[in-house]
């Protein structure tokens, strides 16, 4: 195993699960490890406390007259359950079939660490970088970056930069370099429906009392029509239509055909908003998804109960120019309007983030395309991303800089799922990409 992989494995062994307070110490230890590692590579680095998990900043010696490039990544990871579906321990990385298997391998430790090692390589070879560089690594991305915008505001001058690069998005197909110029936004919420004062006998009272689980089912079903279109009033009002060049380019992009989606998802067939390809549905159209639902008896066998309460959790992916606050208000009034009689409804809004869009044909976009061409030896494709990185919008609003999305994740990387993985090849390409990118941006 190469020294580069050994260092990545060390990084991957930290169970830096940001959502679980039992792992707060692991998140911090992981941040401290990063500070030490950046120092070894010739950068000056510090841990900055926030109300929750710390931010790591690392930089070279800045000189006047050079471009300031900020590279962002996150060192926290998602939980690992269900653990029994992992082929190997999520925090004991292994290489099988040319891939690294571990929680965080792709999202985001493998990708962000490739940038750090790329910088280390350039520093070792040339003694310095061609640009003023700042690394910003956060430990709260997987919980919606609650403290990062505040951190940016407090350090606005230190972090003011010309352009930002992030590798936390996808490559459309193995070997096809991909530049992302858009992200979907998000808004979340939880629905709690309450009925009788306590769980009831379904024989003695069933038929006379509205069942909260039934009500939740009805409310979920009220979100879409039979063509997969969302029927919340005004939901599509601010959706920016796709441009002709986008539809044309995306039709030729490898890795996003119906067959590809079927293969990657394992779904028996695809279903989505009519009139759009899967790439268009996931990159440029908004969604309404149920992320979880519950209520009543969940144990073995049957229990004839009419539950007092039922719940569902939702996320809505948004596209330019939808506003999260506007959408969540529309969602709430939709549920209120469609709530059946005999129950009460509580809707609790969750975290949100605005959608993002930039011009891929601008000066920095062109430099990024050239870096991708050089490091992969292939023509890059330009895409938008289905996922959300709300902080990218905050970068624009607070630091005034646009973000280049240089994703290295493959569609079957299983991020957030068991058996997350990252090809060794992509890790190595990421190191080369960082070196080419800083040169092009300079
Ligand atoms: Zn993630």
From TrEMBL:
Domain Peptidase M20 dimerisation: start-end pairs: 181-342
UniProt keyword annotations, A-Z: Hydrolase, Metal-binding, Protease
Signal peptide: none
SUPFAM superfamilies recorded: Zn-dependent exopeptidases
Protein name: Succinyl-diaminopimelate desuccinylase
Name of the gene this protein is made from: dapE
């Amino acid at each position: 195993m190469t020294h580069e992989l050994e260092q990545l494995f060390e990084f991957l062994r930290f169970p830096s699960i940001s959502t679980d307070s039992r792992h707060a110490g692991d998140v911090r230890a992981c941040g401290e490890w990063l500070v030490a590692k950046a120092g070894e590579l010739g950068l000056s680095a510090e841990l900055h406390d926030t109300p929750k998990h710390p931010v790591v900043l690392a930089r070279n010696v800045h000189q006047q007259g050079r471009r300031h490039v900020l590279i962002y990544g996150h060192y926290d990871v998602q939980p690992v359950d269900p653990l029994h579906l992992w082929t190997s321990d999520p925090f004991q990385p292994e290489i099988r079939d040319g891939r690294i298997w571990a929680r965080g391998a792709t999202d985001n430790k493998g990708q962000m660490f490739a940038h750090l090692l790329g910088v280390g390589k350039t520093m070792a070879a040339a003694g310095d970088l061609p640009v003023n560089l700042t690394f910003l690594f956060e430990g709260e991305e997987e919980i919606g970056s609650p403290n990062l915008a505040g951190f940016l505001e407090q350090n606005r001058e230190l972090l003011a930069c010309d352009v930002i690069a992030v590798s936390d998005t996808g490559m459309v197909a193995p070997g096809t370099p991909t530049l992302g110029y858009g992200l979907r936004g998000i808004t979340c919420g939880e629905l709690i429906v309450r009925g009788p004062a306590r769980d009831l006998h379904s024989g003695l009272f069933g038929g006379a009392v509205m069942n909260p689980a039934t009500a939740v089912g009805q409310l979920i079903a009220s979100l879409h029509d039979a063509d997969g279109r969302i029927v919340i009033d005004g939901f599509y009002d601010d959706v920016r239509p796709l441009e002709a060049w986008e539809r044309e380019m995306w039709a030729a992009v490898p890795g996003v055909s119906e067959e590809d989606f079927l293969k990657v998802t394992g779904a028996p067939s695809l279903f989505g908003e009519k009139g759009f390809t899967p790439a268009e549905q996931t990159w440029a159209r908004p969604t309404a998804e149920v992320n979880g639902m519950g209520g009543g008896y969940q144990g073995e066998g049957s229990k004839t109960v009419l539950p007092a309460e039922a719940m569902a959790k939702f996320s809505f992916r948004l596209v330019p120019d939808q506003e999260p606050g506007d959408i969540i208000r529309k969602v709430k009034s939709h549920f209120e309007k469609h709530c059946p009689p005999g129950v009460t409804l509580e809707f609790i809004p969750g975290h949100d983030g605005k959608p993002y869009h930039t011009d891929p044909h601008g000066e920095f976009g062109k430099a990024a395309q050239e870096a991708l061409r050089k490091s992969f030896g292939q023509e890059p494709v330009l895409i938008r991303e289905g996922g959300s990185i709300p902080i990218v919008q905050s970068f624009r609003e607070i630091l005034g800089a646009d973000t280049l999305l240089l994703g290295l994740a493959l569609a079957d990387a299983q991020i957030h799922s068991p058996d997350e993985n990252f090809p060794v090849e992509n890790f190595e390409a990421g190191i080369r990409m960082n070196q080419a990118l800083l040169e092009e941006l300079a």
